[in-house]
Design a protein that fits this description.
Oligomer: heterodimer
Strand order of the largest sheet of chain A: 5-4-3-6-2-1-7-8
Largest interface: A-B, 26 and 32 residues
Helix content of chain B: 10-25%
CATH superfamily of the largest domain in chain B: DNA Polymerase III, subunit A, domain 2
Number of helices of chain B: 8
Radius of gyration of chain B: 25 Å
Distance between the termini of chain A: 71 Å
Number of strands of chain B: 26
Number of domains of chain B: 3
Shape of chain B: elongated
Strand content of chain B: 35-45%
CATH class of the largest domain in chain B: Alpha Beta
Low-confidence stretches of chain B: 229-250
Structural class of chain B: alpha+beta
Largest sheet of chain A: 8 strands, mixed
CATH architecture of the largest domain in chain B: Roll
Largest sheet of chain B: 8 strands, antiparallel
């Protein structure tokens, strides 16, 4: 297209947008842009009108662009995200990203993707210019990461921007320089195939936005996070990340996601993960495939930060998916703890709307229930064989060792990591300091982090005795384990009773006088949908007006003094938030926890050796052996390493 | 204050009043028992501000006066003292000197003026009922009281004075017990009240075989008073040994309780007006059969199935992880086969507290309420368990 070549960088009306407007006017044959032309016409007319006549006016181009940029470019990390996504869409096999001062002074992303011709490169700077979609219907089935054609012009509008690109078979490349949306220079240059974008002085023309940037450390962390996410989503791509000139991440192309995770987080972390089988709902119209890795039961974090969700290869945030994940664990996860996950959801692009968030961070599913269901089912399937005793054919993996990561022990373990000779072989490709967001070394990491599992065999553990009439001393292959006999027995009884509840047909005690419960509209709708579920759980409930329900029977294990309204409120809160089915366990959990507490052996009950051994092996057979039903720990370990340190055998 | 009392008298009185005293209270005076001596009596009073009990014993009053002493401690001292006369002398600093034979104690009391006075219920509606009858009615119903604090109106017994009858009802929402007794009172005295559990328990302790209870009902309080005179008259007829036993019962006791505010649910509505089948059962046999089968009930499987077939009743308890129990009874039953499941505890409760040899069960089907009746103004509605 010749329109752009005729344009001179230093003309008086020299914004590229202004030039474009001119060129449209000069080339009316671009029929697809009629609408734009008309708008421009109006705009030009308005510019002539006296300002007092209308109160509503169209904003000048550069203001509109800055506003748009504000939505798309929130912080340096979003620039990186957009640029990296463009590189990925361009089919790059290696991507190098670099930034200085948290991305404030410079961001640079270079790829070996398909590159752009001079014309394409110029057009790419035009708003809504994209190669990724062509017609409106394409929005419904977006397969690429980008699609709006907004990112590049937006970034260019708020920074000093340089784009260098060369197609693989072209003799030379193009270099375009823009500052604050003003085209400064276009020239032919020699360069490697692919595209390199440099963004300097981000927000230099938006002082307000610049003020809102966080410290360079925070912005760097965000950029690292984005790059890590993209690296996870595309294991086959080689990545390099340089911060202030220092290489902090270097990833060779990985054969699989597991290699990539190992590379990023280390082997030890990977040991705590279980793969999700790549299965899903087989309905061809709405096939949902869930794959990836989740933490083993018992591995948890105190925040959702380590839940990485990718929908069709795009890192996204979706509360529903997070809840579904948690629901998959249910009893294997303590309340207030969150699982680790690398969750890849693949489904028909038409069944997911990515066009709801300016930065494409969130997505909406056409059938969210189905997606949640698929995630929950996949997680459950993956962790069930991990629950010892659940299946005899399952590999007999058992979490064995616990490391005390309490306040006192924390420094010790940090020192230990520092003492390790050289980077561990698990991370041969990472140079420089390990990424700061390695989950197991964050301060919020589980207080009782699990160590590498090892095959369980009864003889591995030896009961030594009891101290304080409460703590059972056990020798494990890793050191000394202290087990709280009361907490341990509580957990054993708790799981036994829950299993009984789950297997049995629930009887329900009919009530003399039915209770009427009233809910707010949203909850009422949920209760109405779940009537059958509640019935199955032994709660006799039926509709009684618009928002009122009649409860005429309750499961008999609920103690007589239970406040039925409170129970419903709790279940609704939990279930409405989690979008999960009401489970029998939910209804009875608290009651069961209280009952078992009464029946469990107490602190001062003397137990004989066979009793202790039985308790230990039963506890180890539990789904979640590490905490009692109230969330207190059942076992803690003093490892040989810690002992050796304390005795000065190791420095 | 200076008095002389016999150990047995004062011990008996303390036993009766000390239940009300709470060991955990932020108001120290409530841990104390109020002693007031005047004329020829010693009056002992305790209260937790909801329920108050007052008991009078005869004493030789050398100097009248009043004080309050820590109830539990005073009670344990008296219990351990040798039989005989106890002399209690209290100085103006509420220091009580207790001497009996060779024992001597000094305990620190609190001024009597600090003790919250029991309300005087003179105005109000009055009723009179034989103590044994009231006790019997309470025994047949009180076990069904709910302890669900969120439904506070059920945390007590309903007492309805209506149509020349006293009706007592207790329910926890899963079963309901009702007892009735003819009672004469003026039409103007028709009223209803809910007496809290704690007062019911104390009342059960305090009511004896003999004598009459004077009930006074005001808007939010209820008082039960047993006078010595009628009991003494009754004691006159017995032998000497019975005389002393009755002597312990005849004492002048007063219980005052706050009432539960609120409306008791319409219990008439839940009593089935008619049932399809009615079967007569031997109470003892049924109770022992239930007791045995319920041995196999667990916390999560607490139901027994009752199969009524021609002239036969079998009771089955089953829980997968424990086992199975089955009892069969020959009964006189000609109706259609009925199978119904109940919580055995709910069914045993009335059986334990009734004394009739024969009980009747009225049933319709597995989902309809069952009714237990006897040849007396009593009935018990029990909701079945739905097993599917």
């Amino acid at each position: 297209m010749g329109w752009a070549t005729g344009f001179e960088p230093a003309t008086a009306r020299s914004t590229i947008w202004g030039s474009a407007r001119l060129s449209y006017a000069h080339h009316p044959r671009r029929s697809s842009d009629r609408a734009a032309e008309i708008i421009i016409g109006i705009r030009e007319q308005q510019a002539i009108l006296p300002p007092c006549m209308n109160r509503i006016r169209l904003l000048p181009e550069h203001v509109a662009n800055q506003i748009a940029a504000g939505e798309v470019v929130e912080r340096p990390a979003s620039v990186v995200r957009e640029l990296v996504e463009n590189s990925l869409d361009a089919g790059a096999t290696r991507i190098e990203a670099g930034f200085r001062a948290g991305g404030r002074s410079e961001i640079r992303v270079a790829d070996d993707g398909c590159g752009m011709s001079r014309d394409d490169a110029l057009l790419s700077l035009e708003r809504h210019a994209t190669s990724k979609i062509a017609v409106a219907e394409d929005i419904e089935r977006i397969a690429s990461l980008g699609f709006r054609g907004e990112a590049i012009p937006s970034i260019a509008a708020v920074s000093r921007f340089t784009l260098v690109s060369r197609e693989h078979d072209a003799a030379s490349g193009t270099r375009i320089e823009i500052a604050g949306g003003k085209m400064l220079n276009v020239q032919e240059v020699g360069t490697a195939p692919g595209t390199t974008v440099e963004v300097r002085s981000l927000f230099y023309n938006l002082p307000a936005r610049r003020k809102f940037l966080r410290s360079p450390e925070t912005e760097s962390a965000h950029i690292r996070h984005i790059v890590t996410l993209c690296a996870l989503a595309h294991p086959a791509v080689a990545w390099r990340l340089a911060e202030d000139g220092n290489e902090t991440l270097k990833l060779a192309p990985a054969r699989s996601l597991s290699d990539r995770i190992r590379e990023l987080y280390g082997n030890e972390f990977f040991q705590d993960l279980v793969p999700l089988e790549k299965t899903g709902i087989r309905n061809p119209e709405s096939e949902i495939r869930v794959s990836g890795f989740v933490g083993r039961p018992g591995v948890s974090r105190s925040t959702r930060e380590h839940q990485h969700v990718f929908v069709n290869g795009r890192p996204v945030e979706n509360r529903g998916v997070n809840f579904a994940l948690l629901e998959g664990y249910h009893t294997a996860m303590m309340r207030g703890r969150f699982p680790i996950a690398f969750l890849f959801i693949e489904l028909d692009p038409g069944a997911v709307d990515v066009n709801i968030h300016p930065a494409k961070r969130e997505v909406r599913f056409r059938d969210e229930g189905a997606v949640r269901g698929a995630v929950t089912a996949a997680v459950r399937r993956a962790i069930e064989p991990q629950m010892p005793g659940a299946s005899s054919t399952a590999p007999a993996f058992q979490p064995v060792a616990l490391t005390l990561r309490g306040e006192a022990a924390a420094p010790a373990s940090v020192e230990m990591e520092q003492r390790l000779p050289l980077p561990p072989p698990a991370r041969p490709l990472s140079v420089g300091p390990p990424p700061k967001d390695v989950p197991h070394s964050t301060p919020d990491a589980s207080r009782f982090a699990l160590h590498a599992p090892c095959p369980a065999s009864e003889s591995d553990w030896r009961v030594l005795g009891v101290i304080g009439q409460l703590y059972v001393l056990v020798e494990s292959p890793e050191g000394l384990v202290l087990m709280d006999q009361h907490a341990a027995h509580e957990r054993v009884l708790f799981e036994r009773m829950l299993k009984q509840l789950e297997q049995r047909v629930t009887p329900s005690q009919r009530l003399l006088m039915p209770l009427t419960l009233e809910f707010e509209a949203r909850d009422a709708a949920f209760v109405r949908e779940s009537l059958a579920v509640f019935q199955r759980l032994g709660v006799g409930i039926s509709e009684f007006g618009q928002r009122a329900f009649l409860v005429d029977a309750l499961p008999p294990w609920l103690p007589a003094r239970t406040d039925v309204r409170q129970i419903f409120r709790d279940i609704l809160d939990e279930v409405a938030a989690g979008g999960a089915g009401v489970s029998k366990l939910r209804l009875g959990e608290d009651a069961v926890a209280t009952t078992v507490c009464r029946h469990a052996v107490k602190a001062r009950d003397p137990l004989s050796m066979p009793e202790l051994e039985a308790l230990l092996s039963e506890l180890r057979a539990c789904d979640l052996p590490y905490t009692c039903p109230h969330g207190r720990p059942t076992m803690i370990q003093l490892s040989y390493a810690e002992m050796e340190k304390k005795f000065g055998r190791r420095v | 204050m200076k008095i002389e009392v016999t150990k047995t008298e004062v011990l008996d009185a303390l036993q009766q009043v000390q239940n009300v005293v709470s060991s955990r209270t932020t108001l120290p005076i409530l841990s104390n028992v109020l002693l007031r001596a005047s004329g020829e009596t010693l009056e002992l009073t305790t209260t937790d501000l909801d329920v108050g009990i007052q008991r009078k014993v005869s004493a030789t009053v050398k100097r009248s006066g009043a004080t309050s002493l820590p109830a539990r401690r005073f009670f344990s001292i008296v219990r351990e003292l040798p039989e005989g006369e106890i002399e209690i002398e209290v100085d103006e600093k509420n220091m009580a000197a207790i001497s009996c034979g060779s024992s001597f104690f000094k305990i620190v009391g609190l001024p009597a003026e600090e003790f919250p006075a029991l309300p005087k219920l003179e105005e109000g509606k009055h009723y009179k009922i034989a103590a044994a009858n009231l006790r019997d009615m309470l025994r047949k119903t009180a076990y069904a009281i709910s302890n669900d604090e969120t439904r506070y109106v059920l945390n007590g017994i309903f007492m309805g004075f209506k149509a020349e009858k006293l009706t007592i009802v207790a329910t926890d929402g899963r079963r309901l017990a009702l007892a009735e007794q003819d009672l004469e009172f003026p039409k103007a005295n028709e009223a209803e009240a809910i007496l809290p559990t704690k007062a019911v328990r104390e009342l059960e302790h305090m009511l004896g075989e003999k004598g009459e209870v004077q009930i006074t009902l005001t808007e939010n309080q209820m008082a039960f008073e047993m006078h010595g005179t009628e009991a003494e008259a009754a004691a006159g007829k017995g032998t000497e040994q019975e005389g002393t036993k009755v002597a312990a019962e005849r004492k002048n006791v007063l219980l005052v309780s706050k009432l539960i505010e609120g409306t008791f649910p319409n219990y008439r509505q839940v009593i089935p007006t008619e049932s399809k089948e009615r079967v007569s059962l031997e109470r003892e046999t049924l109770l022992t059969a239930l007791r045995r089968t319920s041995l196999l009930c667990t916390d999560t499987a607490n139901s027994v199935k009752m199969h009524f077939t021609k002239n036969n009743l079998s009771i089955i308890a089953k829980s997968p992880e424990v086992g199975e129990a089955k009892e069969t009874m020959v009964i006189n039953y000609k109706g259609t086969d009925v199978t119904v499941a109940f919580n055995p505890e709910f069914l045993m409760d009335p059986l334990r507290n009734l004394d009739n040899d024969e009980v009747f069960m009225e049933l319709t089907d597995e989902l309809s309420p069952g009714v237990v009746k006897v040849n007396a103004p009593f009935l018990y509605v029990i909701m079945p368990m739905r097993m599917s």
